[in-house]
Fold each of these.
Amino acid sequence: MTSNIKTISLNGIEGNLVEVQIDISSGLPSFEIVGLPDTSVKESKERIKVAIKNSGIQFPSRKIIVNLAPADTKKEGTSYDLPIAVAILLSLNEILEKNLENTIFIGELSLNGKINHINGVLPMCIEAHNLGIKRVILPKSNEREAAVIKELEVIGVNSLTEVVQYLNKTKIINGIKVDILKEFNKQEKEQLDFSEVKGQENVKRALEISAAGGHNCLLIGPPGAGKTMLAKRIPTILPDLTFEEALEVTKIHSILGILDNDVGIITKRPFRNPHHTTSLTSMIGGGKIPKPGEISLAHNGVLFLDELPEFNRNTLEILREPLEDKNIVISRLYSKVIYPSNFILIASMNPCPCGYYGSSEKQCKCSENAIKRYLNKISGPLLDRIDLHIDVKPVKYEKLEGKEKIETSNQIKERVNAARRIQYIRYKKLKIFSNSQLTPKMVEQYCYLNKECKKILELAFNKIGLSARAYTRILKVARTIADLNGEENIQKQHLAEAIQYRTLDRKYGDKF
Amino acid sequence: MIKLKIDDNEYPENLRKIKRPPKQLYLKGNIELLKKLGIAIIGSRKCTKYGEKMAIKFAKELSQYNLTIISGMAEGIDSFAHIGSIEAYGSTIAVLPSGFNNIYPEKNIELYKKIIQNGGLVISEYDEDNKAKSEQFLERNRIISGLAIGTLIIEGGYRSGTSVTAKLTKEENKYIFCIPSSLENSKGIVPNQLIKEGAFLVTEVEDIISKYPNLNLVKKKIKNSNVHIDIVNNEYKNIYDILDKEKALNINEIAKITRLDISEISYKLMMLELEDKIVSLPGNNFKIK
């Protein structure tokens, strides 16, 4: 007697349909799983046997063969437990419902028959919806995450017994609905605020531009200048996530199982600040079974690298492609996965090993060579990919005492949101979200310069000695500044301000 | 403003002698300067850094011999000649190609005010409301060469207004002095050509003074000047004025003093830097060059 059940497997952040086929026939009692299962899938045999037994159903002592189709791709993880168990019970006529064409099952079994939480439910459900599936049956703790896909009927279950009862209609479980709008509008009070930072107006302005256009930003300054303090407040001025962006972010967090089960969807832009001892793999993702790394977790958010030159040089160099392509391809012999990595890179560093190069407070003790070696840890190509360079100076005591009114994060965020809206509308057809994503061809189209601006740029190039890549960077930043001002075209003041943010090309330029 | 007719007593004698003396002159500032000896310093509007340096140097040194520096208040060499003279506490005369209500070029209005403030004189042969026209640029050159005892040419491109003034000076039998330029300098064509044709080559200010033995020109000692004049576009002036030559100012301090938006300040600082007026130092600090 054979039966088929559908489930979804994960490859990278995309789901794939897998059919669980089962055949129970007479013969020597055995239980085989075929279709390239890895150890974690093979072990499910024991879990399933015990779980069925502990649910009060006798496990058949006959010849059972399970095939996971398509049989030529590797299967891994524990999410096949539930579909295999259901398929067996279906063959045993324990489950009477035969119409399971449009239902998928996902879940891990524990020995007592309970159903455990699994990772990566959201991307699976997105794929299920794309395939025209109407209903998913999955662990209770995953239900809110799946319910983000409004069109799906999401049935959260606690145990195998409950699944049987539900399918035999002896127990009614209603599909859960999540009000996504409500989650998005939930105004959580931020712990941090830019109004707590006194002075540093120029840095705040740079970060505002960075948030508005999605530009990478490097903060340079002596110890104690407030670089980290400023960077930690960036999430408070980041533009609101759009639904599409939120889905992408949630997908990645779902795969790693670090999602808040009560909410189901991530409504805030992620802020990741890995320590500088972070290994290459954990930064970009990978491993035997590829997992997303820090750069993908920071997708649509901010990756903050404190003390940039302290990072392993290889770890930094590997960021070059993701910064340009906005995704990372992890290739293995048997599989290739693509993780998105469209993040804003915010980095901070000292100008020299002692930290006081160019400072007016303290004399720098470093030799010319030591400074050179220190700055050399950051390669020119990486630096070229950072749009805004900004010097951070310590604030003097008088200013800390001052009672001047300081802008709050919300005021800044309003401007950022307005600028993002302009970009969103302008780039609607291009499937990009911000100015930083413009390709050279698009730059030509959207960053038109009038004669006066062209003259200024030419002058700047001759005087400052910028690289060719800096050219597009400046144009993109100028575009963002124009958007912040609500101007349709780039004016000379926008351009000149944008050039101002290429500090490293100018002051320390000879050292790199 | 004073108006002088050609038959007025104060009308400068040497101007009456030129081919087509202006029928009337409008003057603003110190008209006593008309009685003093003056030398013209002229050159290209788009001068090189070298030209700028030379114009200031020679204007200063000629001022020390009590000579008035006469020029056209145009961009480039003309401006620097006036500036050099003022910086050395000398006297200077600017001859406009337009009426007083339409100072040309507009960006030199600051300089115009500085000239009058520092005891200089500004002259125009045109009515107040007259606007600068291209033929008037050449016309005004005859006044410059007419008022001067000789003309020093710093830089000039091929077929430029500079060569016209040189021609006029030659016709009036006055001396032409030239600063030599590199052969690769396109703005050095006129002075080099004039030297070839017999103009005096000048490497130091005494080369000029020694050509006027009858005038008894004596070098007076002036204390080292600390007057510093810079022509800065009015738009960026509010930022430029609070910067210092010695002490660098941080961008946030500038914001505090001026109470301007940080974006506006960054833009203006960048423009000033591009115009070579200020230098930026590590840590977002700025000072005057």
Amino acid sequence: MASVDVQFDPAFVEETVFLELRNREALGNCAMAQAFHVQRSALYDTTTATGEREARFQQLAARYFQELGFSELFAKRFEEFPLIGAHVPVALVRRAWSRKEERVELYVPPTPGGGSSLKAFPTLWIGFQVARCLNREQLVAFLRHELMHISDMFDPAFGYQPHPDFGAECETEEDLIRKRFRLLWNLVVDGRMRRKGWPAVDHGTTRLREFERAFASWDPQRREAVWPDLGNRASCTQRELLELAKDERLTRMLGQGGVRCPLCHFPTREGVCDWRGERAAVAEAIQTDYAWWDPVQGACRQCFELYRARLPVMG
Amino acid sequence: MPYKEPEPDDPLELTGVVLPASDETSLKEMAVCFVEEFLRDGWSDEQLRAMFRNPYYRGPYLVWRQKGDAYVEAVIQEVRHIWRPNAAGGATHA
Amino acid sequence: MPKVFNWQLGREMSYPYEEHHPDRQFAFVFNLNRCIGCQTCTMACKSTWTFSKGQEFMWWNNVETKPYGGYPQFWDVKILKLLEEASGESQRWNNDVYQGKTIFEAAEKHVGPEPQQVLGYLPTDEEWRFPNIYEDTPVGKPGAPMTFDQTGTSLPEHATWFFYLARICNHCTYPGCLAACPRKAIYKRPEDGIVLIDQKRCRGYRKCVEACPYKKAMYRPSTRVSEKCIACYPRIEGKDPEAGGRPMETRCMAACIGQIRLQGLVKINTDGSWTEDRYNPIYYLVKVAKVALPLYPQFGTAPNGFYIPPRWVPRGYLKQMFGPGVDEAIDAYLAPSRELLAVLQLFRRTNRIIFRYEIQEGPKVYETERHGKPFVMYNDTIIGFGEDGKELIRTQVEEPFHVRPATHQNSI
């Protein structure tokens, strides 16, 4: 069976070892910490070349990383996902500095002729906070959760496309759809982990609240139906999650709660939709330039003001 | 910041100001300038025509409104002849 | 643990080392009524000392918005909470004597397998990551979220408030970092009381990072040793070319746009008390006018950074931050005495350290009543002298008024 070469960023390794041993010390288990610090302290006085000194610190930390069981913990996780092993030669584990910066990404080299394919030796990038390593159960849950996502990307049944068509008109829309899509995918992964008997990742605010907030525009009945449905799915496809994630509010119709001005395409929250009275002349002026435009689509305040200012001049 | 009440002669709103109309020569020069700017940046003929027809780009649009398709096409070809005599029709830009 | 006397607490307290004091002490006063949060001080320090590899997250000087901000995040809330839990009581004062426990005393009582010299915690990567979080975020009207309080800025206490707290290492008299270091790699210089981490001796245990309640000791992963604010000691030694051999203020002090900062070197007696030095501006502000107060004195480290409290902030918050002298300090500041008003003009008039001032009396400008008290303003001249007795600056209470000649109104 193909296995993944898991490479750890030395900074990640050193910090993990330091914090883990410090934790143990705080709980009264001092022997290993003391031995580590004695050996580490000795390295400070090393007068060899910088490169070699650096390497010695890293090697010491790597040894303890192994002894503390972290290497094995990571290796076992990859064994649980044979699809990843079959496709991914290298996984890089890196230190992230905050929750925002944590990400698990698949880097795919571009293929000739444009685009990219998962078939071409991808690299798995796993960036997360060192603090996660201090709770083994949570670390395992986190890794399983992320790796299940990656495994899905290689599962033909999931139908993963690296650059799917979001059906969005601008970056704002795309970001929104992408966020909602990821949340829905998380729900499916959560359910599958639960059914495997794997402990869940602890989030603080529950997944349910996250879901309710992100899909607040839906009818409560729809939310109540989708939530258990996704949670009980054995599988799904990327396409169906993307369809669900589309926000019906994001239309080109500002008059119906959309986000973009049909004239200038800038995202706006304040559209002009009332064209009665004096504004009728402004609407007419706009239509002279934009024959396809219908006042019901609305216009942003800036475009409105521009056309209104032009009226006395253009006649 | 202190809030200033709009005064009758300083309404703090967008005001349209009339500038004297350009003569034929100036109009031609402006049109040439518009085309040259983007043609030298690698735009195709199709992209240049689209710019002239888009009311959002006021300057080129007014040229097109006043002079029409044929005039704009002639300007494009004239400028292309000067700056890209060997390329045909224009390669696409990014 | 040995006992040392902490004048800020009005009593003796435990400390791992015997009492010992420098000849002079680096000390400073920040006037929080003036801080505009421009962060020039932060950038001055960053561009001087912490722009290299491994120092990316370090801000030896930082300006945080209170009450919600903090670098690292919630540093004060967390240590105060630990203190309260460990000591089993809140931090009470009885007049000017602190009744609660300090971080040293709390550690003494700390029952657990790991002997801890100082009560503290190690901030996570994430807590260091966003130095300016909650900047400009005020406390809103209680019970009315997301509403604009029409009377939020009425005095004496704003209902909607925030303020900027500028912080550097306090070069404490009884430093937490120094107490915690297992290798004694941290020391206090006898000539100026500046606390430094010996870069050759440090072994990166990070006990100092855990122990400093103000979280101004920081671990550098690229060198694997810890670093902290060094009070720009080469400048105090007169080694900066601009100084001309005379003691100069730190970069963060010199850069202060709002002119909120004043730094000095105060003389210290062997018992740790400040030698009476009546016309030293720092001595005057802290000991005579009593308008500048220490930051979180209840930690017990006897910080040498003093703050004039912001007048608009609710007193309860200020008292837990600056101790019991808040009401008197604000009273003194609101209707300043003649001398205080003159001394306040010294802030940032020079980058050289002022060792002594003299006031030459000037004419009365006006008199009025402020907050129920009589206030008279005189246009006195105040002169600042350097260590060598030479005059450094001379300025007046009233800003000078220049009238341009009519013939050349556009030029100076």
Amino acid sequence: MSLDNSTVAKIARLARIRVGADEQPHLASELNHVLGWIEQLSEVDTKGVEPMTSVAPMTQRLRPDQVALENDRDAVLANAPESVAGFYVVPKVVE
Amino acid sequence: MAELIAGKTGDWEMVIGLEVHAQVTSKSKLFSGAPTDFGAEPNTQVSLVDAAMPGMLPVLNGFVVEQAVKTGLGLNAQVNKRSVFERKNYFYPDLPQGYQISQFQHPIVGKGEIEIDLPDGTTKAIGVTRLHLEQDAGKSLHDQDPKRTFVDLNRSGVALMEIVSEPDMRSAEEAAAYVRKLRAILRYLGTCDGNMDEGSMRCDVNLSMRKPGAPLGTRCEIKNVNSIRFVMAAIEYEARRQIEILEDGGKIDQETRLWDTRQGVTRSMRSKEEAHDYRYFPDPDLLPLVLEDGLIERIKATLPELPDAKKHRFMGEWGLSAYDAGVLVAEQERAAFYEEVAKGRDPKLAANWTITELLGVLNREGKDLADSPVSAAKLGGLIDLISDNTISGRIAKEVFAEMVETGKEAAAIVEEKGLRQVVDTGAIDKLVDEVMAANQDKVAEYRGGKDKLFGFFVGQAMKVSGGKANPALLNETLKKKLAP
Amino acid sequence: MSAVDLTLAEALDRLAKKDISAVELTEAHLEQMAQHRSLNAYLVETPERALNEARASDERRAKGAAKPLDGIPLGIKDLFCTKGVETTAGSKILEGFVPTYESTVTANLWRDGAVMLGKLNMDEFAMGSSNMTSAYGPVENPWRRPGSNAKLVPGGSSGGSASAVAARMALGATGTDTGGSIRQPAAFCGIVGIKPTYGRCSRWGTIAFASSLDQAGPFARTVKDTAILLRSMSGFDPKDSTSVDMPVPDWAKDCVGNVKGMRIGIPRQYRMDGMPAEIDRVWTQGAQWLRDAGAEIVEIDLPHTKYALPTYYVVAPAECSSNLARYDGVRYGLRAEGASLTELYENSRAEGFGAEVKRRIMIGTYVLSAGYYDAYYLKAQQVRALIARDFTLAFEKCDAILTPTAPSSAFAMGEKMDDPIAMYLNDVFTVPASLAGLPGISVPAGLSDDGLPLGLQILGKPFDESGVFRVAQAIEDAAKFDAKPALLKVA
């Protein structure tokens, strides 16, 4: 397994992090280094082992269907970089 | 009903599967206590969880889980005691967490089946692949500003059931019947209001074309088709589009398309072109959902009689046609109304009056059964008057029109207007005599062999009686007296 | 002795006896903070609020209505959302973010009468073992190697918390531990830090790094002080689905050092190749102390130890890649403009996140992506199950486990920066218990050859913090660690 520049670009795109073409080779080598080290997991025999899904041996708790809105719109928009008439605002999205 | 479409190269068959997103009827959201009311001011029904503020955590709504179980049982489906919430990761402004909490590998409901009613009175079983719970996204408004998109998170986190069908449908009509039946079941169960106008039920259509008997073709997914009419229109359009491409030697790109309501076409969604890699994984903020022992049985015991069971009962017990029974059970209120009308009366007559007359009028006036000026008891009263020969069917229609107008009881109208039918043989004899005396020439012609004139005499006599003569009695008397 | 040199328990005692007021105690700490700002431990100081709270505390006490932590000045790691006080998680992407809500853990502390001194620096989003990844500059360890001016790291990610408590700029502090972020900095700074069992402290309102691993816990200068703090911080929270509904014991009562008859496990696999002799020495010494106190020392096996770090570096990045998706420049935090929405996202996140955070998001994105999920994520969760099972089996043979906390003493700023894996190896002894959700404490046990503190780690069975505190107290009693950071000697 070796991660090339185009894979780095693909991951960066999925993660929505701008990575310039000039940064790709360095990042690729760093990620390869870490992923190569992770690769040792393949030595472990995990046949038939249930993957861990929760740390504590618990199941999901359920809450009653009650309306409990502790905050108002001001709290929701308080930290927004841009808002208009109660809406969050982003550059136009083309569908 | 596998309706084939003729193309230049032969017949084509549609293969249709539907994914229906149904908003779960609940007071609060799937993972937060924010309310779910429709039409609130933007961002006023948004908890800190729904806005994905740092450090916020989801807590599962137990009632929503019960609603999903109930729906699963209503779809004759396997309810899974253990299910897992996973994250579906993608970026979009109306998806504040950057992921949608959904169920992927382990949904709460597995395989099931529903029966759809087709216009010719036949039925067909459509497989349900699965039902899972997931969060709704917020709403992006693209048309408020030329350069900006506005985001309202009121819907963000509202509980949805995604109900996925098998690709078992072969025509637009079948797809429409499926949506109608599914909606009826959800409404009977009270797990979704089925209101497509308000977006509480939305359809994605998966469609591919093939030559009959050939393997499945490449499909396109048409997103957000928000009425049954549009489901049919989108299917018809998309089928033609695909046939055209295939017959021109092209191939179908597997893609997501959007139904453009205004232009009546499907078009490729540019924003979804990028290959998706949702990176599903179990949500570490939540634990596996394990239904407590006895929950499924407890919910099963509360299930109402569902449309199909009701339909079969109407057909079996009361001898209704499949079509009439299907119409009556399409809505729970309608079925209940009908049952009240039919109780202790002729069930077929009751069905006829409910469907043809009452629903006909309501349909014309765009009213719901709930707003009907004629209650079930009053319609029953009218039917009683027909059954005991107080009025004829024809007069009954007149009385019914008056009932719709005024909301009065049938009996009162009959008394008021003196519409009671004439069943006295002496009176009828007299009436016939009158008519024959006034039309001696016609009597002669009739007796001379012009049988067709019989209708003329009936009409005249009815007219003279003001429509009140008992038709059977009148016929009998006329036949007797006109005989040479 | 200055008020800042009191232990938390002593301070409570003095406050109760009215030998000192909460205002005096708070002022002494505010002064200490002002004096040692160069450590860069605090990101935000809240002196006015602290004094107001201290005054209110004194009033309560005068009325005889004092609460368990009344008047105790604390520092809060900047990962805990504090209502009305800027909370950044050490990241530029949250610069200026002022929560409208209070995390459950801090709310519990204020409920019990504690006083907030300010918000503590940390590795960005708790990703780091040196506090070098903070967007607001590194934190300095108050310790120095004798005869050296080299600035040392306090460890991480809760570097500000550990440095502040070691430098007497708080009687205690909150931290969070995902793979060692409380225990390793506690060891580096010569103080005590405990990560309780996963589920003890609510995660609500604490900015998430890796949800299945994150757990809050306290720092203080004695075992008993951490026991007092942890009791206030813990407790069931219906707002966190992973919070455990269990009674919270009065752990201070467990800090008596009686380990007679306890079986202490020494995991063979923790004796790693190339382990510095001083680490081995302090570990062996620790075992001897416990043996002397009447405990039985037993060798145990944790066969999958070697795979804990690589497992962690799949699971934690995977979860963080998703947890950090919400920082998109739309609803809060940094927004870098872009012509399109995608550009806005990509620019905001490129500008807002530092190198280590980006690296982990990228790794996490990769290991979850189509075609790699089974080989990496699923595999790691399977190995994680084996690691947890190792501990379950080991705890059939022992009541607690003793290990070194970290493979070295504090290193200099700038060291281990070139190779991410060299940095990751800092957590080799702390990560396995994180993966299994077990409680673990670090207690100062001695000095390294170059005069820096070394810590011992005690791991316990799930929810047996009591046992952990007992053993920790025994170590503390035997170690009699009274060395002071260089900084304090100078002052």
Amino acid sequence: MKRFTFRGGVHPPHFKKATEKLSVEKAKIPQVVTIPLQQHIGAPCEPLVKVGDKVKIGQKIGQANAFVSAPIHSSIAGTVKKIASFDSPTGSKVQCIVIESDGSNEVHEDVRAKGELHNLSKKEILEIIKEAGITGMGGAGFPTHVKLSPPPDKPIDTVIINGAECEPFLTADHRMMLEHPEKVVFGLKAIMKVLDVRKGFIGIEDNKPDAIKVMEEAVMNEPDIDVAPVRTKYPQGDEKRLINAITGREVPSGGLPMDVGLVVNNVGTAAAICDAIKTGMPVIERVVTISGSAINEPKNLLVRIGTSFKEVIEQCGGYKSDLGKLISGGPMMGFAQFTDEIPVIKGTSGILALNKKDAKIPDEQPCIRCGKCVSICPVNLEPLFIAKFSQKRLYDEAEKYHALDCIECGSCSFICPSKRKLLQSIRTGKREIISKRKKS
Amino acid sequence: MDNNLIASSSPHLRSKQTISSVMLDVLIALLPATLASIWFFRFSAVKLIVLAVVTAVVTEIICQKAMKRPVTVKDLSAVVTGLLLAFNIPASAPWWIPVVGSAFAIIIVKQLFGGLGHNFMNPALGARAMLLASWPVIMTNWVSPGADAVSTATPLAILSGEAADGTLPPLSDLLLGNIGGSLGETSAILLILGGIYLLYRGVINWRIPLAYIGTVAVLTLAFGVGFNDMLYHLFAGGLMLGAFYMATDYSSSPVTSLGQIIFAVGCGLLTVVIRLKGGYPEGVSYSILLMNLAAPLIDKYTRPKVFGEVKQSA
């Protein structure tokens, strides 16, 4: 079997055993949901409802006029109780709509099948995707309809569905491919139709042989679609790494996949597109992997958007006694949280709870110039130098060493034997460089 | 829920490798050669090794206390320095040679420049160069292995014609270590074994050892040394010790992949030139020291091409 890969990268332990064999269960429909009006990259939405309004499942409750944005829908049926700022898993306070369930589970009348794929025009499919509020489900949350609207001077010839799922612990995409391969393929075909593209790939890391097999069977009668097994290596699921591995193309520094004729979408995004076309249901729920050393019963749950982390974790047997860290996303790129009173959003691929031992931040020791960070950096940077310049506030030097090309995958901090906070220092440097650019 | 959650910047997962695990691996790799040197040179080896290691560790503690820095002997780097220094001393040396050498390595070469990671040259090699310059007779008084240690010449000295009366030992003795030389440089095969362990554990990569040894092999042949003598150049003397354990020293070698190869080729080139065209039969330690000085410059000129950089400018 030909396996594709990229240069650099690290091999963190997988930790996927706890949940990879567990079917996705439906989480309980919560009594109260807190739905942030910004769950995506782009303009925040304005509320379309006011306190006291009755809403139904799938009803649009937030919208923005900007192109780069995605509407927000209600994930339960009930009454709007509050519209106010709350903590969100992205780290800042965001305006949210709080809805209390009336127990009816009534679905909004706008939610209906949109017809057959071959009867829909490109424009119609794009509109369905936009109206369904679909954003990158891998975690970044970039509005999908924007990704699928490249300017005319950027012809797209290939679409890749990202099923690499290289983050340790996470198995949400893995289970999606095993349980709903047809949705993934349908979503891919819809994307290919929108972009008028002949070639589609589904990239899957080879630590998921069962998913590779299932997806290969699912595309048996699709001559234009191939499953591309990629070598298990972090950060294989970074879209530019995946493009490089499968097609050999190199997205230019500071550029986008469309610059080399590609569009990459996550497995979950493809499945959401399928749902939006076949049933008309917008993004009101997603698969979340709940795992980690401080979780009693790790699970893959289908969770309504806006459910609090706390409620989700309670359905996984709660915390073990020695909770040390709570993470939204995977352990390599996820965000550490300071509370579990935050809602699941469209980009929440995982909720990890680590015990005190795993959460301990190791003591930093001096850099011994071992060069491991240089040899594993997937973008060929020299993290040790950028971090050093950044710590010394020599941001111009850091920029000369291409700090802005850093993809923040965290491989350098992972591999460092001195346990230096390389990525943290590089992030600081990047922020300073960008703010300086804005000023000038 | 208590409010004691740890919030930190990603990644939240770290590799198991630490400085002490790296240094422990180096010690494990050096263990076979250490035992061999004790087998060959008996008590004098034990004495020199213990003195060198203990002095290195004690000096580091005193130094760090005096400089009001955290004491970091637990990282085992001082132990490695002491052991490597002992490996560079002839078995006949008096007790104070390793003591002076280790103290010099730790105080002058390592701590005064900022401690671990900041030394611009390999501490053990820096100390060896100092000892050799200060006490040249003691530092080249080679004895043959065994209980009845008699003065002997190293194979490379015989090869260079410096020791006119010597006869070359068979190659098998070189591999096993049954030859005259410094404590740890005698058994090529055990040093290679340790080197393979370090490669397997990911402590070092293949670039420096392979490029170094390869350059020496190719250049000695190119300089008209026969194939057989080329093997002597590889397996006698400090090449294996230098290529696997000294030139690969993290702080004093380049961090870029290309830089490491250039560095190692430079080491090889200098070694061959010193051995064949210079008046000194050994060349490894000075070659590495000279290239150590060039390491920052090499790093500067071998910066890797950033992913996606070419196409943007095109």
